[in-house]
Amino acid sequence: MKITQISIFLENRKGRLYDVCSLLGTNHVNIRALTIAETESFGVLRIVVDKSDLAIQLLRDHHFVANFTDVVAIEVPDQPGGLASILKILADNDVNVEYMYGFVEKFSDKALLVMRFEDTEFAQQVLAKNNIRIVAEKDIEGL
Amino acid sequence: MATPFWNKEIETAERSRLEQLQRERLRTTIGWALRTPFYRKKLAQVGIKAPDDIRSLEDLQRIPYTTKDDLRLSFPRGLLAVEMKEVLRVHSSSGTTGIPTVIYFARDDVDNWTDLLARSIVATGATDSDIFQNMMTYGMFTGGLGLHYGAERVGMTVIPIGGGNTKRQIQTMKDFQTTVVHITPSYLLHIHSRLGEDGIERRDLALRKAFIGAEPHSENTRRKLQDLLGIDAYNSYGLSELNGPGVAFECVCKKDMHVWEDAYIAEIIDPKTGEVLQDGAQGELVLTNLVRRATPILRYRTRDLAFLHPEGCDCGRTHRRLSRILGRTDDMLIINGVNVFPSQIEEKIMKIPEVATNYQIHVDKKGSLDRLTVKVEIYPKLFLGEVARLEALKHRIVEELRASIVITPGVELHEPGALPVFEGKAKRVVDERPKD
Q1: Domain extent for A55
Q2: Which of B267, B296, B330 is the endpoint of a domain?
Q3: Interface test with B, best of A14, A35, A41 (most B CBs within 10 A)
Q4: Domain limits at B2?
Q5: Which ipTM score applies to this complex?
């Protein structure tokens, strides 16, 4: 139950982030989660959206430098130590997290997190074995 | 104003005497040149097979021009006129496409060059009592060692500190009470801006003269330096192909630079037609060296635009004066005294697969120093969404360029289509340095 994350290269230019968001917005693509990795001279915007196929098409048509990766979205207890408990399971099983970030909304009282793993398949097995809920693509479309 | 001389007889010789010297030395130089594979072929094409085929200075015009490309294509030994055993030193400048140009010096060549620099130094009024801090880069570049030898011959106290490390330069100027420096104008401005930082003020220094060269600058820049630091600044001209510094130097009058005409024949030509122009007319400077046995070079197209003053100088020297360098006939950039050709940059970045075809070379000033930034567009298919890979790419571009052009450029990554697109000839270089 992987979901699609879109990474977009953004050069250091005023309004460039706005260009992406407005392109998606005017075409009714909703951003569900996002993070920006930035350096002094450029940034990489990472997003999870409700209609990823449409978003990919739009970005391509408008010549953005974009790439698509599999990530896993999981539910995390929204309480102190909630995230730590999950990271412990991952660490105990030698699963390496490359980066992670939070969703805007949630389904239940639990927080939603996007995680990018070195080995996505293996990470999913570990998560499933430990009864951690993995969110499916269709769940996000319905958010 | 006192008019000091190093070799008064030569420096004030009648024009007829100078021209006689030039004629004799040109014939000798032709003899040397005929020992090189390059000139043997080139001169044979115009019917020059022996020194006697040159009878007058006018005959010089029969000789075809020599270009930077000729030197590159002759690398490494096509212009060597003596046995390697006789070569005392090798100097080199970076090539435009990775192939350097090389100049060999025999013992007498170093000696002659050193004498021209001693003459240049003395013409500015500097003496053996001066303490000379040589802030030009040493090594294969001719700027450092050339002045170093000249200053030693004059008997100055020489501090061979080389370029860079501003803090140490200022401390050294204070510690040894340096009176004369050799430096690029932009670096001297930078040094001035850093005075006072470590508690060393202008009044703690004994500086009174600067030899400024290796990059073109205006009269305004000279005045600014003189006013800011309360010194006399003298313009210096040279290029490694013709020895390096000491081709032309300003005297105490500071009204442009005497070309040492017993050692060089200077011509100004129309860069488009190749026609030789009259004194006073602006064009491309062409130089022939007359006292370099190991690598004789005839009618070298310097690509520098200038003119020769037709009238004499108040100092009494009869050697004609060369104007400031007014521009270039090619696209060479001078970044903090270092020559950079856009083609060197293009060659490197186009070898990197992640870089798309459009790029831009941007030059501006940060404080008083030049700043070079290379802007490239990334190739979309090789973007994998990872920041680390992009950073590594940027780092790789910086390193590749640094190895080629010697200076460390800034590198910016851009999206495809972000840089201006040109129809026809692209304008790759944006130079925003003020022209004062």
Answers
A1: 3-69
A2: B330
A3: A41
A4: 1-330
A5: 0.80
